[in-house]
Amino acid sequence: MRLVGLVVVLACCLAPLIAQAQPRAIPQIGYLGPGTEAGDRRLVSAFRQGLSDLGWIENQTITIEYRWAEGRAERLPALVQDLVRAKVDVIVTSGRFGIRAAKEATTTLPILFVLLNDPVSAGFVKSLARPGGNATGLASQFEELVTKQTQLMKEALPGLSRIVLLSRVESAPSNIGEAAEAAHALGLTVSTLKVGALTEYENAFRMAQRDRAGAIQVLPSPVFNTHRRVLIDLAAKYRIPAIYEFRDYVEDGGLMSYGPSITRLFRGLAGYVDRVLKGAKPADLPVERPSTFELVINAKASKALQLTISPSVLARADEIIQ
């Protein structure tokens, strides 16, 4: 009996240790979203589809823990800490502030990102070819993107002389400087309006109208993408032509967009998850850059603004939404 009792005691003591040593039944992804579940539905759908194409089926071969900042960057550090405590296997996020929050929270968990900026100058990776550290993903080049957006807007509206750059307050000053430099190079008069809270957006458009801006360039931001319907409605209300980063804006009624396919980027992000879960280290996975960009124009929005977009820009459009 004493022997049986000893075996029972040992079994009880060892059971938690054995359980801890057991690998999780299925891998777990931590999804850190700067926006909202509803606003980023298409991105999440593209990410899930990318996973599915690689054999990772949510709630079958993989689970995903979602955390949403709802457009409030200050919430990101607490949300990522929550994912770290949940012991996820990898963190997926987008935008400078999501990546920075994740990098500050962990130096060991793999961080896989989508970024419309240079991750090297931002300090997230050592180089595009050899990221080093625990982060990698897909990234565009902000300077190239906004320069081309400004050129397209100037060409689309030949009479354009004054443009407003709409920026989030947390955006890096260097980003705004690059966009302003591109506009100045085209002979445009440039002013910058920064917004933080959602309640500040309308005043920015009111000021742009008061200053007789011929167009607004909405600088890339995951928070702006979350609030894109508000931006689109304000551009229509104040009758100011606007150019955006992704086709989502144009599909939702915005005038024009130029940038990489954001859904394609998020499908590509699934490939990084696949490789990391199979043993690859982020430090050894080169940062990918989009090779194709798309120009999308909304003909209905153009008509509502009584615009005549130059034939040369219309001819180059990848899609004109009627």
Detailed description of the structure:
This protein is an alpha/beta fold. The chain is built from 13 helices and twelve strands. Helix 3 crosses helix 4. The strands form two sheets. Strands 7-6-8-9-10-11-12 form a seven-stranded mixed sheet, with helices on both faces. A five-stranded parallel sheet has the order 2-1-3-4-5, sandwiched between helices. 43% of the residues are buried. Helix 2 links the parallel strand 1 and strand 2. It has two domains: 26-140 and 262-284, Response regulator (Rossmann fold), CATH 3.40.50; 142-259 and 294-321, Rossmann fold (3-Layer(aba) Sandwich), CATH 3.40.50.2300. It starts with a helix and ends with a strand.
Strand content: 15-25%
SSE order, one letter for each helix or strand: HEHEHEHEEHEHEHEHHEHEHEHHE
**CATH H-level superfamily title of the largest domain:** Response regulator
Q: Architecture of the largest domain in CATH?
A: 3-Layer(aba) Sandwich
**Mean pLDDT, rounded to whole units?**
90
What order do the helices and strands come in, and which of them pair?
Elements: H1 2-21, E1 28-33, H2 41-53, E2 63-68, H3 76-85, E3 90-94, H4 96-105, E4 111-115, E5 135-139, H5 142-156, E6 162-168, H6 173-185, E7 189-195, H7 201-210, E8 215-218, H8 222-226, H9 228-237, E9 242-244, H10 247-251, E10 256-259, H11 262-277, E11 294-298, H12 299-304, H13 311-316, E12 319-321
Parallel strand pairs: 1-2, 1-3, 3-4, 4-5, 6-7, 6-8, 8-9, 9-10, 11-12
Antiparallel strand pairs: 10-11
Give a brief rundown of this model.
The radius of gyration is 23 Å and the shape is elongated. Mean pLDDT is 90; it is low at 3-11 and 15-23. The protein is of the alpha/beta class.
